[in-house]
Design goal:
about 240 residues, alpha/beta, Rossmann fold, 7-stranded mixed sheet, 7 strands
């Protein structure tokens, strides 16, 4: 059976999809960029990015392309008029022209642990331009549902904390790393944003209290991020 069929996911799953603010903001600031969505799935990011680039056509000449291992997903992308192709082995993928921006959203955790640093090195040396930007989103092992996301998808091989994500990027040769939208507040406004900020403060206080009581600890050098996903920009 196909992966997406087994997971109960189809193109219709994303029919009301909205590009997250952290991604949209980067696209709006890089309208001339050549962009790759690595692991594009049914093309929800591709479609949203294409619409931004199309709307801003007079301001820039950006392009966006998707690659995925799943033939069903790529056929769906093509049926929507999106530029996408099947790539069965990323380590053999050689684009005609390198990319200014590469998005990897909820893909990295599916790779075997021993392939992650080599993969990031390959992206940096073969797919990304010299001053290019890599943007990664992965489930956060330190979140309240971290253990759930480690096992909910049977094809997950590893989950990341902020520290381990920094580590693999540094080991792959990325010198500058920056976490984005740490508390998942960018897409909220008004009272909803204030309420989340308030309860998150309580959550952090509670977390620190029980860490002291149980003699537990976090790596001091790693940012404490508790949201469902980690979003990081690297160059």
């Amino acid at each position: 059976m196909d992966y997406f069929d087994a997971r109960g996911i189809s193109r219709l799953t994303y029919e009301n999809y909205k590009l997250p603010s952290y991604m949209a903001n980067i696209i709006h600031k890089n309208l001339n960029a050549r962009i790759l969505d690595f692991g594009c799935g049914f093309g929800q990011n591709l479609l949203a990015i294409s619409q931004i680039l199309k709307t801003a056509k007079k301001k820039g000449g950006g392009q966006v392309k998707g690659i995925d291992i799943n033939l069903q997903a790529i056929e769906s992308c093509k049926n929507q008029g999106l530029d996408a192709e099947v790539v069965e082995d990323i380590f053999t993928y050689q684009p005609i022209e390198k990319f200014d921006i590469i998005f990897i959203t909820h893909v990295l955790e599916h790779f075997p642990k021993d392939q992650i640093i080599p993969l990031l090195k390959y992206l940096k040396s073969h797919l990304l331009k010299d001053k290019g930007m890599l943007l990664i989103a992965v489930p956060n092992a330190q979140s309240h549902t971290g253990a759930y996301w480690a096992y909910e998808d049977f094809t997950h091989n590893v989950l990341f904390t902020s520290g381990s994500l920094i580590y693999v990027l540094k080991m792959a040769g990325f010198e500058n790393v920056e976490f984005l939208d740490k508390d998942c507040l960018d897409d909220l406004k008004g009272i909803k944003k204030l309420m989340r900020q308030f309860f998150l403060k309580l959550y952090k206080i509670n977390n620190k209290f029980w860490n002291k009581i149980t003699c537990s600890a976090f790596h001091a050098a790693s940012p404490e991020i508790f949201s469902y996903e980690l979003k990081i920009k690297a160059s």
